[in-house]
Structure formats: structure tokens, C-alpha cells
Amino acid sequence: MSKDYYQILGVDKKAAKEEIKKAFRKLAHKYHPDKKDGDEVKFKEASEAYAVLSDDKKRAEYDAYGRVFSDGASASGGGGFGGFDFSDFVNQGGFGAGQGVEFDLGDIFSEFFGGGGRSRTKRGRDISIDIELPFEESVFGVSRKVLLTKTSVCDICEGTGAKSSKTKTCSKCNGKGKMHETRKSILGSFSTTRTCDACYGKGTVPEESCDRCLGSGVRRKEEEITVAIPAGIDSGEMIRMNGAGEAVAGGVSGDLYIKIHVVPHKNFRKEGNNLITDLSVKLSSALLGGEYVLETLDGNITVKIPAGISFGEILRVKGKGVPVSGGRRGDLLIKINIQMPAKLSRIAKKAVEELKEEGI
């Protein structure tokens, strides 16, 4: 059974060429395979239908016999693009045949999928580096200087590419700053506009180019960059510095990404804005109380152990944790471990037996 090309395109049998063309464009936009929700089968069917109905001779044959003979085979006879061979179609009188039309699906559908002739600002490459931090610096924050070799804005001409302030009209774009192009495709003509790559959209070029960057406005060099690492940063976190990446002629610089690797501390670990450490106390201190000197990131402090403290109990020292906004800080949490004696002396054993008799 032959296909109903009118039904595929959704047009009446008396539809004019312009209406058929409009219907095909709509379906091509909807079903193009490069789209996320495209449908290759329906796209091929619409293309096949348009190949026939847009050609007067083939359309007449199709209307009379339900098939096409002018190309030596049935239009739905297979081969090529689902029964429709684009190269055949262009050669035998399709869209603009014999008019020097380019056949490039990327060009045809750029209007539909985000092209549309819009000029885009050029952007330099992003750069990624790694920095290793001691635990203390990750807690309190630090400023680090790193030396990078990258393409940067020329420090002599400050990115202008000019040796002096004198300029002249760009001969490539005649001072317009943009280049206009008209391209033909099977769906018609498309106009595109792009930024002039000689003057980068300014319309003027320097009369004399900068000796250091040779007029490009950028050059490869070593550059020292200061990285401000915030307090409380965690291992694996990324810092982004806008515009600190690679520069590009006539565009904007990329970004610099710094990945942080924190070296673990032997005594402390971080949990949110709090610092946690372990403190081992003697059994006698756990029973009777006592005082211990604890080394912290802020220096030594004296910790008072209350009598009768339990194993795993946590003591809180306010304001000795990670700095937070507003000048405040988290807390230092001290987890108590009770040291059990491996051996008891005769006196100690007697004392423990007395405690046992008292039910302790």
C-alpha cells in the first residue's frame, strides 16, 4: 500500500507549494534525529513526502498513479534515506537544483537548534590546579600564591594589541565589526552574522601592532595568582576564580578551578564547624576528677575532668572550633577515653576490692 504523503505532511491535496514547504519545516524541526525527543522514522517519512510533493512533475505522477516514475523507481522503493536519496533529490530538481545549493544538514538545522546566526563571544580555556593544605590552614583559611604559565592579557598593551592609541578602519569588515554571510540549503537561504576575526568586533585595528604580543592582545607568560582559601574548607572542595584562566584574543578569559586536598591531622578532625579530638584519662581521674593540659590549634588549654565521667562522654569547649561568619567560631569537642590499667599493684587491687564491696 502506497504512503499518503499529504497525510504525512498534514496538508490538503490542493495545498500550495509554500504551504507544503512550511509543513515540512515544522515537522523537520519537530522530528530531527539530532534533537533529544526527535524521531528518525518520522523525519525520513516527512523528507520523502516533501521530496515528491515539492516537485511539480513528481507530484503530478503521485496524484495520478499513487507513485513516482520520473526517477526510474517508486518513491517508496527503498534505498538511500528511507526511500528518499538526498543526493538524487538535489540532482533531479529538488530545492534549488542547479543553483549551487550546499547540502549540509548541520547548516540547514542550525536555525532550529540554537544557531540562528547569533554571534558568540569567544572564551578562553578553563584551567584546573590542585593545592595541598595542612589541616590548620584549612580550618583558619589562608592566602596562597601560585605561579602559572598560561596565555594572559598582554601587560604591555593591556589587551588592545596596539603600540599606540592610533587606529584605522578594519579593511576586512569595513568598520562594521561584523561579517554577514548568506548561505543556501534545501530549506532555503539563511543569513548569518559573525564577529569580525580581524578587529574582534571593534571596527578598527591598530595602525601599529604591539611589539610584545604582535597585535593579538594576549601572550603566553608566567603569572603569579593569589588564591584566597576560606576558613573551614573541606578536602575535595573546589574554588573557582572567574577570569583567571586562559585569555583569548578578542574574547573573555576562562576560569581557574582550584581543587583542595587537606592533609589529615594526627589529633583533630572536623565535623561541620566543630573540631573533635580524643583525650585519654586515667581511671582515677575518671572516678575522682582531675585536670589535663590539651594541645589545641590555638595553643594549650587546661581541661577539667569532672568526677564520675563515663567512657565516650564528650566535653565541649566553646569558641575553639572552625571560624564562621560574623567572627563566631564552632566548638571543640573532647571525647573521653578511660585508660584501664593492664596490671594492678597489691595496694591498688585491695582498693578496688573495697570498692567492689561497696557496690561500686
Q: What would you note in describing this structure?
A:
- This protein has 360 residues and is α+β, with helices and mostly antiparallel strands.
- It is built from nine helices and 15 strands.
- The chain has helices at 5-9, 17-31, 40-53, 56-65, 86-91, 105-108, 135-140, 283-288, 346-357, and strands at 127-133, 142-153, 167-169, 178-185, 188-195, 204-206, 218-229, 238-241, 256-262, 269-271, 274-282, 290-296, 299-305, 314-317, 332-339.
- The chain has a four-stranded mixed beta sheet. Strands 1-9-8 form a three-stranded mixed beta sheet.
- The longest helix is centred in the N-terminal third of the chain and has 15 residues, at 17-31.
- The chain is elongated, with a radius of gyration of 38 Å.
Topology:
Blueprint: H1 5-9, H2 17-31, H3 40-53, H4 56-65, H5 86-91, H6 105-108, E1 127-133, H7 135-140, E2 142-153, E3 167-169, E4 178-185, E5 188-195, E6 204-206, E7 218-229, E8 238-241, E9 256-262, E10 269-271, E11 274-282, H8 283-288, E12 290-296, E13 299-305, E14 314-317, E15 332-339, H9 346-357
Parallel strand pairs: 1-9, 11-15
Antiparallel strand pairs: 2-7, 3-6, 4-5, 8-9, 10-11, 12-13, 14-15
Helix pairs in contact: 2-3
